[in-house]
Specification:
442 residues, alpha+beta, Nucleotidyltransferase, domain 5, Gyrase A, domain 2, 3 domains, 5-stranded mixed sheet, 11 helices, 25% strand, rod-shaped
Protein backbone atom coordinates (compact mmCIF):
# COMPACT_ATOMS: atom_id res chain seq x y z
CA UNK A 1 0.00 0.00 0.00
CA UNK A 2 1.28 3.47 -0.84
CA UNK A 3 -0.38 5.09 2.18
CA UNK A 4 0.47 4.02 5.72
CA UNK A 5 -1.19 5.12 8.94
CA UNK A 6 1.39 5.73 11.67
CA UNK A 7 0.40 5.96 15.35
CA UNK A 8 2.43 6.76 18.44
CA UNK A 9 0.73 5.43 21.53
CA UNK A 10 1.37 6.66 25.05
CA UNK A 11 2.19 4.70 28.16
CA UNK A 12 -1.14 5.38 29.89
CA UNK A 13 -4.67 5.67 28.58
CA UNK A 14 -4.76 9.44 29.31
CA UNK A 15 -1.64 10.19 27.24
CA UNK A 16 -1.97 11.96 23.91
CA UNK A 17 -1.71 9.90 20.73
CA UNK A 18 -0.18 11.32 17.55
CA UNK A 19 -1.20 10.00 14.13
CA UNK A 20 -0.04 10.62 10.58
CA UNK A 21 -0.90 9.28 7.13
CA UNK A 22 2.20 9.14 4.96
CA UNK A 23 2.52 8.40 1.24
CA UNK A 24 5.61 6.22 0.90
CA UNK A 25 5.78 6.70 -2.88
CA UNK A 26 5.58 10.48 -2.97
CA UNK A 27 7.25 10.82 0.44
CA UNK A 28 4.67 13.33 1.59
CA UNK A 29 2.25 13.78 4.46
CA UNK A 30 -1.42 13.20 3.56
CA UNK A 31 -2.92 14.05 6.95
CA UNK A 32 -1.91 14.22 10.59
CA UNK A 33 -3.38 14.99 13.96
CA UNK A 34 -3.48 14.26 17.67
CA UNK A 35 -5.94 12.45 19.92
CA UNK A 36 -6.48 13.52 23.52
CA UNK A 37 -6.28 9.94 24.85
CA UNK A 38 -6.51 6.27 23.90
CA UNK A 39 -10.29 6.25 24.17
CA UNK A 40 -10.44 8.44 21.04
CA UNK A 41 -8.68 5.82 18.87
CA UNK A 42 -12.08 4.96 17.40
CA UNK A 43 -11.83 8.25 15.47
CA UNK A 44 -9.12 6.59 13.38
CA UNK A 45 -10.97 3.30 12.72
CA UNK A 46 -12.16 4.31 9.25
CA UNK A 47 -8.73 5.64 8.30
CA UNK A 48 -7.13 2.34 9.37
CA UNK A 49 -9.44 0.06 7.37
CA UNK A 50 -7.90 0.60 3.93
CA UNK A 51 -4.33 1.29 5.05
CA UNK A 52 -1.38 -0.52 6.54
CA UNK A 53 -1.02 0.47 10.21
CA UNK A 54 2.34 0.80 11.96
CA UNK A 55 2.53 1.73 15.62
CA UNK A 56 5.31 3.32 17.65
CA UNK A 57 5.47 2.99 21.42
CA UNK A 58 7.45 5.07 23.93
CA UNK A 59 11.06 4.04 24.27
CA UNK A 60 10.79 4.68 28.00
CA UNK A 61 8.62 1.54 28.22
CA UNK A 62 11.08 -0.65 26.31
CA UNK A 63 14.57 -1.54 27.52
CA UNK A 64 17.09 -2.26 24.76
CA UNK A 65 19.97 -4.52 25.78
CA UNK A 66 23.02 -5.84 23.93
CA UNK A 67 24.48 -9.07 25.34
CA UNK A 68 27.27 -11.54 24.80
CA UNK A 69 25.64 -14.96 25.21
CA UNK A 70 28.02 -17.97 25.10
CA UNK A 71 25.84 -20.17 22.91
CA UNK A 72 25.29 -20.66 19.21
CA UNK A 73 21.68 -21.86 19.05
CA UNK A 74 18.89 -19.29 19.12
CA UNK A 75 16.73 -21.49 21.33
CA UNK A 76 19.38 -21.82 24.04
CA UNK A 77 20.18 -18.10 23.79
CA UNK A 78 16.57 -17.04 24.30
CA UNK A 79 16.20 -19.40 27.22
CA UNK A 80 19.26 -17.94 28.94
CA UNK A 81 18.69 -14.19 28.37
CA UNK A 82 15.89 -13.58 30.96
CA UNK A 83 18.01 -15.04 33.74
CA UNK A 84 21.15 -13.21 32.61
CA UNK A 85 19.24 -9.92 33.01
CA UNK A 86 17.33 -10.91 36.13
CA UNK A 87 19.51 -8.85 38.49
CA UNK A 88 19.19 -5.72 36.31
CA UNK A 89 15.39 -5.83 36.05
CA UNK A 90 13.04 -4.39 38.61
CA UNK A 91 10.35 -7.03 37.98
CA UNK A 92 10.23 -10.78 37.86
CA UNK A 93 11.09 -12.16 34.45
CA UNK A 94 7.70 -13.94 34.41
CA UNK A 95 6.01 -10.51 34.25
CA UNK A 96 8.17 -9.31 31.36
CA UNK A 97 8.13 -9.90 27.63
CA UNK A 98 11.37 -10.43 25.69
CA UNK A 99 11.56 -9.68 21.96
CA UNK A 100 14.66 -10.37 19.89
CA UNK A 101 16.19 -8.57 16.92
CA UNK A 102 18.01 -10.13 14.00
CA UNK A 103 21.21 -8.09 14.00
CA UNK A 104 24.70 -9.23 13.05
CA UNK A 105 27.31 -9.56 15.79
CA UNK A 106 28.79 -6.20 16.74
CA UNK A 107 32.47 -5.25 16.87
CA UNK A 108 32.33 -5.49 20.66
CA UNK A 109 31.20 -9.14 20.37
CA UNK A 110 27.51 -8.61 21.19
CA UNK A 111 25.57 -11.46 19.59
CA UNK A 112 22.17 -11.00 21.21
CA UNK A 113 19.93 -7.93 20.90
CA UNK A 114 16.82 -8.00 23.05
CA UNK A 115 14.00 -5.57 23.89
CA UNK A 116 12.32 -5.97 27.28
CA UNK A 117 8.94 -4.58 28.26
CA UNK A 118 6.18 -5.40 30.69
CA UNK A 119 3.77 -8.06 29.45
CA UNK A 120 0.93 -6.01 31.00
CA UNK A 121 1.99 -2.97 28.93
CA UNK A 122 1.94 -5.03 25.72
CA UNK A 123 -1.54 -6.26 26.57
CA UNK A 124 -2.65 -2.68 27.30
CA UNK A 125 -1.48 -1.41 23.90
CA UNK A 126 -3.13 -4.30 22.12
CA UNK A 127 -6.37 -3.75 24.02
CA UNK A 128 -6.55 -0.11 22.92
CA UNK A 129 -6.08 -1.08 19.29
CA UNK A 130 -8.51 -3.98 19.45
CA UNK A 131 -11.23 -1.81 21.05
CA UNK A 132 -10.86 0.62 18.12
CA UNK A 133 -10.86 -2.25 15.59
CA UNK A 134 -7.38 -1.28 14.40
CA UNK A 135 -5.02 -4.05 13.39
CA UNK A 136 -1.36 -3.05 13.59
CA UNK A 137 1.23 -4.74 11.41
CA UNK A 138 4.19 -3.68 13.53
CA UNK A 139 4.83 -2.36 17.02
CA UNK A 140 8.20 -0.60 17.25
CA UNK A 141 9.98 1.45 19.95
CA UNK A 142 10.15 5.05 18.78
CA UNK A 143 13.92 5.27 19.37
CA UNK A 144 14.53 2.67 16.63
CA UNK A 145 12.58 4.82 14.16
CA UNK A 146 14.96 7.73 14.61
CA UNK A 147 17.75 8.38 12.05
CA UNK A 148 20.86 6.37 12.83
CA UNK A 149 24.24 8.10 12.41
CA UNK A 150 27.31 6.16 13.49
CA UNK A 151 28.89 7.56 16.69
CA UNK A 152 26.41 10.46 16.80
CA UNK A 153 23.15 11.11 18.54
CA UNK A 154 19.83 11.90 16.91
CA UNK A 155 17.20 13.67 18.98
CA UNK A 156 13.75 15.21 18.62
CA UNK A 157 11.29 16.72 21.11
CA UNK A 158 7.77 15.35 20.83
CA UNK A 159 6.04 18.34 22.42
CA UNK A 160 7.26 21.72 23.63
CA UNK A 161 7.77 21.85 27.35
CA UNK A 162 5.15 23.99 29.04
CA UNK A 163 5.38 24.07 32.79
CA UNK A 164 2.12 26.02 33.06
CA UNK A 165 0.08 23.05 31.79
CA UNK A 166 -0.83 19.85 33.56
CA UNK A 167 0.53 17.75 30.73
CA UNK A 168 1.68 14.25 31.65
CA UNK A 169 5.36 13.38 31.56
CA UNK A 170 4.97 11.36 28.34
CA UNK A 171 3.72 14.46 26.52
CA UNK A 172 6.97 16.37 27.17
CA UNK A 173 9.38 13.76 25.94
CA UNK A 174 12.63 13.77 23.96
CA UNK A 175 13.45 10.74 21.82
CA UNK A 176 17.20 10.10 21.47
CA UNK A 177 18.98 7.43 19.46
CA UNK A 178 22.60 6.71 20.40
CA UNK A 179 23.43 3.69 18.21
CA UNK A 180 22.04 0.84 16.19
CA UNK A 181 20.51 -0.78 19.28
CA UNK A 182 20.76 2.04 21.81
CA UNK A 183 18.58 4.94 22.73
CA UNK A 184 16.09 6.30 25.23
CA UNK A 185 12.91 8.31 25.51
CA UNK A 186 12.78 10.59 28.53
CA UNK A 187 11.08 13.67 29.92
CA UNK A 188 12.62 17.15 29.87
CA UNK A 189 13.89 16.90 33.47
CA UNK A 190 15.74 13.64 32.77
CA UNK A 191 17.06 15.21 29.57
CA UNK A 192 18.54 18.06 31.61
CA UNK A 193 20.15 15.52 33.93
CA UNK A 194 21.70 13.70 30.95
CA UNK A 195 23.16 16.93 29.59
CA UNK A 196 24.67 17.89 32.95
CA UNK A 197 25.98 14.50 34.04
CA UNK A 198 26.76 12.46 30.92
CA UNK A 199 29.86 10.39 31.62
CA UNK A 200 33.01 10.40 29.56
CA UNK A 201 32.11 6.96 28.18
CA UNK A 202 28.34 6.81 27.68
CA UNK A 203 26.59 3.64 26.62
CA UNK A 204 27.03 3.08 22.92
CA UNK A 205 29.80 5.68 22.40
CA UNK A 206 32.80 3.75 23.67
CA UNK A 207 36.00 5.71 23.26
CA UNK A 208 34.31 9.09 22.80
CA UNK A 209 34.98 12.10 24.96
CA UNK A 210 32.21 14.52 25.94
CA UNK A 211 33.44 17.17 23.54
CA UNK A 212 33.21 14.59 20.75
CA UNK A 213 29.47 14.05 21.17
CA UNK A 214 27.50 15.36 18.21
CA UNK A 215 23.74 15.70 18.54
CA UNK A 216 21.68 15.94 15.34
CA UNK A 217 18.68 17.95 16.50
CA UNK A 218 15.48 17.62 14.44
CA UNK A 219 13.65 20.16 16.64
CA UNK A 220 14.40 22.68 19.34
CA UNK A 221 15.73 20.72 22.30
CA UNK A 222 15.17 22.17 25.77
CA UNK A 223 18.24 23.37 27.68
CA UNK A 224 20.64 22.27 24.99
CA UNK A 225 21.80 25.73 23.92
CA UNK A 226 22.50 26.73 27.51
CA UNK A 227 24.50 23.59 28.26
CA UNK A 228 26.19 22.78 24.97
CA UNK A 229 29.16 25.04 25.55
CA UNK A 230 29.74 24.01 29.15
CA UNK A 231 29.26 20.27 28.72
CA UNK A 232 30.97 19.90 25.39
CA UNK A 233 27.99 18.85 23.26
CA UNK A 234 28.06 19.91 19.61
CA UNK A 235 24.62 20.51 18.13
CA UNK A 236 23.96 20.04 14.43
CA UNK A 237 20.69 21.68 13.53
CA UNK A 238 18.85 19.41 11.08
CA UNK A 239 15.77 20.34 9.12
CA UNK A 240 12.83 20.36 11.50
CA UNK A 241 10.32 17.57 11.04
CA UNK A 242 7.10 16.41 12.62
CA UNK A 243 8.15 13.54 14.92
CA UNK A 244 5.90 11.00 13.17
CA UNK A 245 7.04 12.19 9.74
CA UNK A 246 10.63 11.64 10.83
CA UNK A 247 9.75 8.18 12.16
CA UNK A 248 7.90 7.32 8.95
CA UNK A 249 10.94 8.14 6.82
CA UNK A 250 13.41 6.11 8.88
CA UNK A 251 11.53 3.27 10.61
CA UNK A 252 11.99 0.91 7.66
CA UNK A 253 15.75 0.84 8.30
CA UNK A 254 15.01 -1.38 11.29
CA UNK A 255 12.96 -4.53 10.74
CA UNK A 256 12.47 -5.09 14.47
CA UNK A 257 8.91 -5.78 15.58
CA UNK A 258 7.69 -6.24 19.16
CA UNK A 259 4.79 -8.31 17.82
CA UNK A 260 6.45 -11.70 18.04
CA UNK A 261 6.05 -14.84 20.07
CA UNK A 262 2.78 -14.79 21.99
CA UNK A 263 1.92 -11.36 20.51
CA UNK A 264 2.58 -12.27 16.88
CA UNK A 265 -0.05 -10.91 14.53
CA UNK A 266 -2.51 -13.47 13.22
CA UNK A 267 -3.86 -12.62 9.81
CA UNK A 268 -7.62 -12.05 9.86
CA UNK A 269 -9.51 -12.71 6.66
CA UNK A 270 -12.79 -11.04 5.81
CA UNK A 271 -15.99 -13.09 5.51
CA UNK A 272 -15.96 -12.64 1.75
CA UNK A 273 -12.42 -14.00 1.56
CA UNK A 274 -13.41 -16.97 3.73
CA UNK A 275 -16.41 -17.67 1.48
CA UNK A 276 -14.19 -17.53 -1.58
CA UNK A 277 -11.73 -19.87 0.13
CA UNK A 278 -14.57 -22.36 0.74
CA UNK A 279 -15.58 -22.12 -2.91
CA UNK A 280 -11.98 -22.50 -4.03
CA UNK A 281 -11.54 -25.50 -1.71
CA UNK A 282 -14.65 -27.21 -3.10
CA UNK A 283 -13.47 -26.48 -6.65
CA UNK A 284 -10.04 -27.94 -5.90
CA UNK A 285 -11.65 -31.07 -4.40
CA UNK A 286 -13.89 -31.45 -7.45
CA UNK A 287 -10.89 -30.99 -9.74
CA UNK A 288 -8.88 -33.60 -7.82
CA UNK A 289 -11.78 -36.07 -7.97
CA UNK A 290 -12.19 -35.47 -11.70
CA UNK A 291 -8.47 -35.89 -12.31
CA UNK A 292 -8.46 -39.09 -10.23
CA UNK A 293 -11.44 -40.47 -12.19
CA UNK A 294 -9.85 -39.57 -15.52
CA UNK A 295 -6.56 -41.10 -14.40
CA UNK A 296 -8.34 -44.35 -13.49
CA UNK A 297 -10.06 -44.35 -16.89
CA UNK A 298 -6.77 -43.68 -18.64
CA UNK A 299 -5.13 -46.54 -16.73
CA UNK A 300 -7.95 -48.90 -17.76
CA UNK A 301 -7.74 -47.82 -21.39
CA UNK A 302 -3.97 -48.21 -21.32
CA UNK A 303 -4.36 -51.75 -19.96
CA UNK A 304 -6.96 -52.55 -22.62
CA UNK A 305 -4.72 -51.14 -25.33
CA UNK A 306 -1.83 -53.32 -24.15
CA UNK A 307 -4.11 -56.37 -24.18
CA UNK A 308 -5.46 -55.63 -27.68
CA UNK A 309 -1.95 -55.04 -29.04
CA UNK A 310 -0.85 -58.39 -27.62
CA UNK A 311 -3.83 -60.08 -29.33
CA UNK A 312 -3.04 -58.38 -32.67
CA UNK A 313 0.57 -59.55 -32.52
CA UNK A 314 -0.55 -63.09 -31.61
CA UNK A 315 -2.98 -63.23 -34.58
CA UNK A 316 -0.34 -61.81 -36.90
CA UNK A 317 2.17 -64.46 -35.82
CA UNK A 318 -0.46 -67.11 -36.37
CA UNK A 319 -1.22 -65.81 -39.88
CA UNK A 320 2.44 -65.27 -40.76
CA UNK A 321 4.52 -67.76 -38.75
CA UNK A 322 7.68 -66.83 -40.62
CA UNK A 323 7.55 -63.22 -39.35
CA UNK A 324 10.27 -62.54 -36.79
CA UNK A 325 10.40 -58.94 -35.63
CA UNK A 326 6.87 -57.78 -35.08
CA UNK A 327 6.04 -54.31 -33.74
CA UNK A 328 2.57 -52.97 -33.35
CA UNK A 329 3.52 -49.79 -35.19
CA UNK A 330 4.58 -51.69 -38.35
CA UNK A 331 1.86 -54.34 -38.51
CA UNK A 332 -0.46 -52.10 -40.56
CA UNK A 333 2.18 -51.37 -43.19
CA UNK A 334 3.19 -55.06 -43.31
CA UNK A 335 -0.42 -56.10 -43.83
CA UNK A 336 -0.79 -53.54 -46.60
CA UNK A 337 2.24 -55.06 -48.36
CA UNK A 338 0.82 -58.53 -48.00
CA UNK A 339 -2.54 -57.40 -49.42
CA UNK A 340 -0.83 -55.62 -52.32
CA UNK A 341 1.01 -58.83 -53.14
CA UNK A 342 -2.35 -60.60 -53.29
CA UNK A 343 -3.93 -58.17 -55.74
CA UNK A 344 -4.93 -55.27 -53.56
CA UNK A 345 -8.20 -54.59 -51.77
CA UNK A 346 -9.45 -52.30 -54.52
CA UNK A 347 -8.99 -54.83 -57.35
CA UNK A 348 -12.34 -56.57 -57.91
CA UNK A 349 -10.65 -59.45 -59.74
CA UNK A 350 -7.97 -59.89 -57.14
CA UNK A 351 -7.41 -62.67 -54.69
CA UNK A 352 -9.59 -61.24 -51.95
CA UNK A 353 -12.41 -60.52 -54.39
CA UNK A 354 -12.25 -64.12 -55.60
CA UNK A 355 -12.30 -65.42 -52.05
CA UNK A 356 -15.40 -63.37 -51.27
CA UNK A 357 -17.18 -65.02 -54.24
CA UNK A 358 -15.98 -68.52 -53.36
CA UNK A 359 -16.84 -68.28 -49.68
CA UNK A 360 -20.64 -68.84 -50.15
CA UNK A 361 -19.90 -72.14 -51.96
CA UNK A 362 -17.85 -73.35 -49.00
CA UNK A 363 -20.74 -72.36 -46.73
CA UNK A 364 -23.19 -74.43 -48.82
CA UNK A 365 -20.89 -77.46 -48.86
CA UNK A 366 -19.21 -77.50 -45.44
CA UNK A 367 -18.22 -81.15 -45.96
CA UNK A 368 -15.61 -80.05 -48.53
CA UNK A 369 -12.46 -78.74 -46.87
CA UNK A 370 -9.75 -76.76 -48.74
CA UNK A 371 -6.21 -78.05 -48.32
CA UNK A 372 -4.45 -75.29 -50.28
CA UNK A 373 -5.25 -72.12 -52.18
CA UNK A 374 -3.12 -70.70 -54.96
CA UNK A 375 -3.85 -67.57 -56.94
CA UNK A 376 -2.37 -66.77 -60.35
CA UNK A 377 -2.32 -62.99 -60.58
CA UNK A 378 -1.59 -62.86 -64.26
CA UNK A 379 -4.39 -65.22 -65.27
CA UNK A 380 -6.62 -64.08 -62.41
CA UNK A 381 -7.23 -67.70 -61.57
CA UNK A 382 -7.79 -69.31 -58.20
CA UNK A 383 -6.70 -72.92 -57.76
CA UNK A 384 -8.13 -74.93 -54.90
CA UNK A 385 -6.97 -78.34 -53.68
CA UNK A 386 -9.78 -79.83 -51.54
CA UNK A 387 -10.80 -83.01 -49.69
CA UNK A 388 -14.25 -84.47 -48.96
CA UNK A 389 -15.94 -87.75 -47.96
CA UNK A 390 -17.31 -88.52 -51.45
CA UNK A 391 -17.57 -87.29 -55.04
CA UNK A 392 -21.05 -85.78 -54.57
CA UNK A 393 -19.61 -83.01 -52.39
CA UNK A 394 -17.30 -81.97 -55.26
CA UNK A 395 -20.27 -81.81 -57.65
CA UNK A 396 -22.33 -79.75 -55.24
CA UNK A 397 -19.37 -77.37 -54.71
CA UNK A 398 -18.94 -76.93 -58.48
CA UNK A 399 -22.65 -76.21 -58.91
CA UNK A 400 -22.48 -73.59 -56.16
CA UNK A 401 -19.53 -71.92 -57.88
CA UNK A 402 -21.33 -71.83 -61.24
CA UNK A 403 -24.35 -70.20 -59.59
CA UNK A 404 -21.99 -67.50 -58.27
CA UNK A 405 -21.12 -66.47 -61.86
CA UNK A 406 -17.80 -68.29 -61.73
CA UNK A 407 -16.29 -70.45 -64.42
CA UNK A 408 -15.05 -73.70 -62.89
CA UNK A 409 -12.69 -76.25 -64.38
CA UNK A 410 -12.69 -79.35 -62.26
CA UNK A 411 -9.43 -81.31 -62.11
CA UNK A 412 -8.76 -84.96 -61.46
CA UNK A 413 -10.24 -86.60 -58.40
CA UNK A 414 -8.54 -89.40 -56.48
CA UNK A 415 -9.94 -91.78 -53.96
CA UNK A 416 -7.67 -92.06 -50.93
CA UNK A 417 -9.25 -94.61 -48.66
CA UNK A 418 -12.40 -93.16 -47.18
CA UNK A 419 -11.74 -89.66 -48.54
CA UNK A 420 -11.65 -88.11 -51.99
CA UNK A 421 -9.21 -85.38 -53.07
CA UNK A 422 -9.62 -83.15 -56.06
CA UNK A 423 -8.87 -79.73 -57.50
CA UNK A 424 -10.69 -76.75 -59.02
CA UNK A 425 -9.53 -73.92 -61.29
CA UNK A 426 -11.85 -70.93 -60.84
CA UNK A 427 -12.12 -67.83 -63.00
CA UNK A 428 -14.66 -65.05 -62.60
CA UNK A 429 -16.95 -64.60 -65.63
CA UNK A 430 -16.46 -60.85 -65.21
CA UNK A 431 -12.72 -61.35 -65.79
CA UNK A 432 -13.38 -63.28 -68.98
CA UNK A 433 -15.76 -60.60 -70.24
CA UNK A 434 -13.22 -57.85 -69.57
CA UNK A 435 -10.49 -59.82 -71.33
CA UNK A 436 -12.72 -60.46 -74.37
CA UNK A 437 -13.67 -56.77 -74.54
CA UNK A 438 -10.03 -55.75 -74.54
CA UNK A 439 -9.25 -58.20 -77.36
CA UNK A 440 -12.22 -57.03 -79.47
CA UNK A 441 -11.27 -53.44 -79.01
CA UNK A 442 -7.77 -54.06 -80.12
Amino acid sequence: MAEILYLRLGSQIQDKISWLIFNTVEQEIIASGELANAEQLTDLTDKAQQRLVKVFVPGCDVLLKRLVVPTKTQRAMRSAVPYMLEDELAQDVEQLFFAYANIAESEEGHNCFVAVTQRAQMLLWQTWLADANIQAKTLQPDVLAMPYVDKQWSAIALHPTDASTNASISQNQIVVRLGEWQGFTLDSEAWQFILNNFSTEPSGTSGQEQNDIVINAYSDLPNLNETSSSNGFTTVKAEEELPLALFAQHCHHSNFNLLQGEFKVKEHRSKNVKNWLWVAGIAVCALLLNVSYKSAQLWQLSAQKTQVEAQIIAHYKKAFPSAKKIRIGTIKSQLNRKIAQLGGVSDQAGFLAMLSKVQPAFAKVPELKPESLKFDGKRQELRIQAIADNYQHFERFKAALNSANLTVKQGAQNNQGEQVTGSFSIVSNQNKTSSTSRKGGS
